[in-house]
Amino acid sequence: MGEMGKRKLDTGWLAARSTEVKLTGVELTTTHAPSGPDQPWMEAVVPGTVLATLVKNNLVPDPFYGLENESIIDIADSGREYYTFWFFTTFHCKLSGNQHVDLNFRAINYSAEVYLNGHKEVLPKGMFRRHSLDVTDIVHPDGENLLAVLVYPPDHPGRIPPEGGQGGDHEPVKIVDPHLVSSFFDSYKRVYLHVTTGLVNKSARVAECSLNVLVTTEVKGGFCLVEHLRTEHVSVPPGASVQYTFPKLSFYKPHLWWPNGMGKQSLYNVEIGVEVKGFGESDMWNHHFGFRKIESNIDSVTGGRLFKVNGQPVFIRGGNWILSDGLLRLSKKRYQTDIKFHSDMNFNMIRCWGGGLAERPEFYHYCDIYGLLVSPLSLYIVFPEGLQTIKYPIELEPLWRFASNWQLSYRVYLQDFVWQEFWITGDCDGRGVPISNPDGPLDHELFLLCARDTVKLLRNHPSLALWVGGNEQVPPEDINTALKDELKLHPYFQISTQSGNSQEDIFPLLDDPSQYLDGTRIYIQGSMWDGFADGKGDFSDGPYEIQYPESFFKDDFYKYGFNPEVGSVGMPVAATIRATMPPEGWQIPLFKKLSNDYVEEVPNPMWEYHKYIAYSKPGLVHDQILLYGAPTDLDDFCLKAQLVNYVQYRALLEGWTSRMWSKYTGVLIWKNQNPWTGLRGQFYDHLHDQTAGFYGCRSAAEPIHVQLNLATYFVEVICAILVVNTTSDELSNVAIEVSEWDLEGNCLYYKVFENLTIPSKRTVPIFEMDYPKSNNQTPVYFLLLKLYNIPDYGILSRNFYWLYLPGGDYKLLEPYKKKKVPLKITSEVFIDGSAHEIRMHVRNTSKKPDSNNLLYKNRFIERDSDGDFDVASLEAVNSRIEEKKEGGEANALRVTEVNGTEVGVAFFLHFSVHAWKPDHKEGEDTRILPVHYSDNYFSLAPGEEMLVNLSFEVPPGVTPRVTVRGWNIHTGHTIL
């Protein structure tokens, strides 16, 4: 008997332009199969787009490099035939006499003809729809199978407006689209799991089925604990499709799923299986599921949209996401890096912008794991969730088509919580030039079909927070009405769970909530409606430019409660510019002095094409890079840009958090990353190297945070979470240490404020800074704030500022580059296969530690295993290198000293990891990416020490080297 299983066909594909293939699909899959990558056939990128395949085979230049994208013909000019391609592969399968096999396409855009062993099937149209074909009678059960797919681009691909835009427009019984829903009672002590699944009987007789649902949770040691096992008998008529709802499963005090920073992301594994009498096991489906309830309403105080998870309000700090790669060369590994980066920044929401795609299940899987709420704006593209065929299913990765020559100025969508948007953006229809279809999309029924498919694909993920109809506009009336009706909330999710069990008596009279299309999340018609921006769609999001850091704290900066898009600069490091542009793109902007004393930045054409955002706004904001002095070359410009990136984004989030609940309920930054080599609004570049803005956000978005209000000069403490497992909902027995330093390494001010109590979910002003109002002023100074737990002096939050007096600048930092501050770095490497972890203890040795104060040691508090802050049992982690880690291989300690004789702050230190090569070529990019750092772009006061962890994977045959640089360590020193 053949085995039941799934098989991915994501390698071994060939592709060819349809006009260059003189054979029919029948001939290709019978007598004239291509034998290999021989003209016109080439190796294909699957998953990926046609353009990705052409790039891989060097038939078009890399559209992400320099201005090469301009040389690629757009589908609007070439016509659809030019980007209509054949895809071909072979596979083997072995079936027993009673087994069935389905051919599953995870996503195709836009339509296709499928040929298997000479048999033809036409797939219906749609944006990245799932398709499943029963090919039991077609496959060769003991031989090679020939598969050819002719993929057509959209019927009406559209044209980019002249001013640019944001994008274009067989087993006996099979399990289909199960739906999992949890409902809570008695203040979350009791929960029910509701399960409904589709069943399809492909046979010609009644199928007598044993339908099972198994719920398990993982315990220590890799063992699983069975929480529930239930079996039901179901009869399915021949050729029928039925929906079956299990009796609800009861849980008492289950582990809950929490967003990033609020608690553990507890997940249960739910497995549904079906056995057919006379056939045995027929199909199996499983999914990780988190028990959580998301509530959302318009806040009466701020007018902004307020989210609650498990009854607790969540102050939203996140960003907008487009997609991982513009050519859809997507991988599980890249998704994991993307989502972990967002978690590392302490973000708790990602908005999946509607001009992108409804992300693949792998994206949502990592959002579930890392606790990111996803808010999909537009359901743009449908990705199927795993294969759902019985016995011997064959799963095809998406055969994506990317034909148009993007102007690549589009916007994006995102994670933690995830908000998922549907594909209403108005760039080609409605608001395009010319307006081609004001009632777009063209096919309303097809749009709704794709929307429903996307809901079924994503609805079981706990990280998915809400559905949104469109970006900065609403869908046409008929589509909007249909979405409102089909995504309406079940009554379970219209009441507060805190009300006890009195409501439970009426629920048996209602439909089971798992029978709804969703029923658990709200639908909002547009990204600026109903608690977002002004709530009326009047383009009140933004701005998207550089700001004075103190502006974010002022009353008049943004007057609405929740901003879904506010953007700024995003210049990457110099190595990325050199890696993605030819030398003519390395020219830094010209600084043009205007008559009103402002400066206009004039970027080179390549930067302008890649959507560079200037660090000045003539008439409103003086150039923030020139505050540090005129840059001399690309390296100097990018280093100063990182200083501004850090300050800009830390101030943005700190300004919003300063008014948490009193003025704002949340903010989403435009945007987190780029799906290409863009130069605007990003915290890491397309190569996965972080900007300093990444670490500015990481600091500002801490769940417990100490900060300086740049408008009032009050030191504030933010406790953005419910402090769990304590007798009171407050942060008590904590203290703040304040120290100020001049450029000569002198401590100008030192004070400790002890025995403080901070209420949970509040921002509390603690005291007003005396300096810089005191007499001993210096034009440029450093401020170090530390919030620590008094019992063990563990650091809860550390925040380092560089500041200048009103009306001044940072130009005195330019000669500070010459100050040679000594460092001592003790490091240890742990290796497990290709995975490397490095622990580095970094100390500024320019001054001997003073045992009379707390300044010098950073013993950071770590969250417990649940991700919660249990203040009653907080324990500081010593910054010294720990004993050898269990498992893997550990190298001996290595000590590196950076020579210097002067006392001062080691300013803006940053590490990077490189591949060591004996034949290194001048200008070659040797960076190993991605790297996860516990901190980077940090500064150490005289005598201060810190522990920094790095983790990364090393390609085969490569020896890694770690380098440290800084403002006053600019030549670079090799640590390992």
UniProtKB/TrEMBL annotation:
Q: Which UniProt keywords apply?
A: Glycosidase, Hydrolase
TM spans (from-to): none
Q: Does the keyword Hydrolase apply?
A: yes
Q: InterPro entries annotated for this entry?
A: Beta-gal/glucu_dom_sf, Beta-mannosidase-like_N2, EBDG/EBM, Galactose-bd-like_sf, GH, Glyco_hydro_2_AS, Ig-like_fold, Ig-like_GH2
Pfam families, alphabetically?
Glyco_hydro_2, Glyco_hydro_2_N2, Ig_GlcNase
Q: Name one GO molecular function term.
A: hydrolase activity, hydrolyzing O-glycosyl compounds
- For the Glycoside hydrolase family 2 immunoglobulin-like beta-sandwich domain, which residue ranges apply? 173-292
The family database entries (PROSITE patterns) matched by this protein are listed as: GLYCOSYL_HYDROL_F2_2
**Hydrolase is among the record's keywords:** yes
For this chain's UniProt record, which GO biological process terms are given?
carbohydrate metabolic process
Residues annotated as domain Exo-beta-D-glucosaminidase Ig-fold: 873-969
Annotated Beta-mannosidase-like galactose-binding domain ranges read: 38-154
Q: State the family named in the UniProt similarity comment for this chain.
A: Belongs to the glycosyl hydrolase 2 family.
State the name under which the record lists this protein. Answer: Mannosylglycoprotein endo-beta-mannosidase
Give the species this sequence originates from.
Rhododendron griersonianum
Which taxonomic lineage does the organism of this UniProt entry have?
Eukaryota, Viridiplantae, Streptophyta, Embryophyta, Tracheophyta
